[in-house]
Amino acid sequence: MWSSAWSSVSAQDRATWNAPQTPFKVFGNTYYVGPHGLSSILISTPHGLVLIDGDLPESAPLIEAHIKALGFRVSDVHWILNSHAHSDHAGGIAQLQHDSGAQVFASAPGAHALELGGADPEDPQFGLAPTYTPVHHVRAVRDGEVVNFGGVEITGHATPGHTPGSMSWTWHSCEGNTCLNVAYADSLTAYTNKTFRYTDDAKHPHRVEDFRKSIATVAALPCDILLTPHPDQSNFWDRVQRRQTGAHPDALIDTAACKAYAADADKNLDAELTKEKAGQP
Predict the structure, then answer these.
(1) How many Å apart are CA 78 and CA 130, to the nearest integer?
(2) Which residues form the Metallo-beta-lactamase domain (predicted)?
């Protein structure tokens, strides 16, 4: 069941999040195939396709159409990776898995949340975030594990905080003689159901410590191009527009982007902890 709070937000934002977006190449073998407000990233390998995030349940048909528009086949999506198990990033995975036959990958806590359809009691947004069709047979990836997907190595980085199972992903993408580090850094916002408290060690031990470590992890990621689950979290569309004008062909490349993203997250977490200490909701 959705809470009334999430339902009201959803009524305002879902259509905007799921607005159509022409798919395009980000760099090398990396493509944007999500709707305008939610990232879904396609990585082409010599032996199949990797998809990161499935967005909302209603995003699945759009993502599949975008994959086809780029000249790829949905049946060639062999692997689906998830950042975190909220419905706006995982809601479409069950359908995409069904249509492609792909194996799904997530962190161990993320895999558990996917199999619960997002109804994870350990989630700071439990009872607030909508549920969705559960995703089964999820392969858990360890922190720092490098997985070879069809000849392309992708590293999983555990970055818990926004959810217990949040995971960021990094890989190399090459175009001609130029190879860059691409980072898909998971959400780092401290957002809760208003009863969860990060500072409540009795109920949720080490949450603040883990969150700080995740922020430091993202700041240290190999990061020439930053992608995030919500494109506006990293000013993605502004950078894309600057590239499209032709005046700034390398506008997506910013080696300081992950550090800046992490610094903003640090400030957001500080603000949330200050509210908790003051007893504010």
Answers:
(1) 27
(2) 37-230
Cα(205)–Cα(56) distance, rounded to whole angstroms? 31
Domains of the chain plus CATH, in order, are: 4-277 (3.60.15.10)
Contact 43, 27 (CB under 8 A): no
Query: What is the 3 state secondary structure string of the chain?
Result: CCCHHHHHHHHHHHHHHCCCCCCEEEECCEEECCCCCCCCEEEEECCEEEEECCCCHHHHHHHHHHHHHCCCCHHHEEEEECCCCCHHHHCCHHHHHHHHCCEEEECHHHHHHHHCCCCCCCCCCCCCCCCCCCCCCEEECCCCCEEEECCEEEEEEECCCCCCCCEEEEEEEEECCEEEEEEECCCCCCCCCCCCCCCCCCCCCCHHHHHHHHHHHHHCCCCCEEECCCHHHHCHHHHHHHHHCCCCCCCCECCCHHHHHHHHHHHHHHHHHHHHHCCCC
Residues 113-141 have pLDDT tens digits of 999 999 999 999 999 889 999 999 999 99
Give the predicted TM-score (pTM) of the model: 0.95
Q: β-pairing, 41-45 with 48-52?
A: antiparallel
CA–CA dist 262, 273 (Å, integer): 16
Q: Which of 162, 161, 164, 167 is nearest to 142 (CA)?
A: 167
Q: Look-up: residue for tokens 């957001």?
A: 268
Q: How far, in Å, CA of 171 to CA of 29, rounded?
A: 11
Mean pLDDT of the chain: 94
**pLDDT (tens digit per residue) in 59-82:** 999 999 999 999 999 999 999 999
Q: And the tokens for 93?
A: 């995975």
The candidate with the shortest Cα–Cα distance to 44, out of 141, 146, 175, 140, is: 175
